[in-house]
Amino acid sequence: MKKLVLCVSILAVILSGVA
């Protein structure tokens, strides 16, 4: 479960960086 949260937060950082 912790890995899923980590992946989601990394994805959010990438998306906010792109946006």
TrEMBL record:
This is PhrK. It comes from Bacillus subtilis. The lineage of its organism: Bacteria, Bacillati, Bacillota, Bacilli, Bacillales.
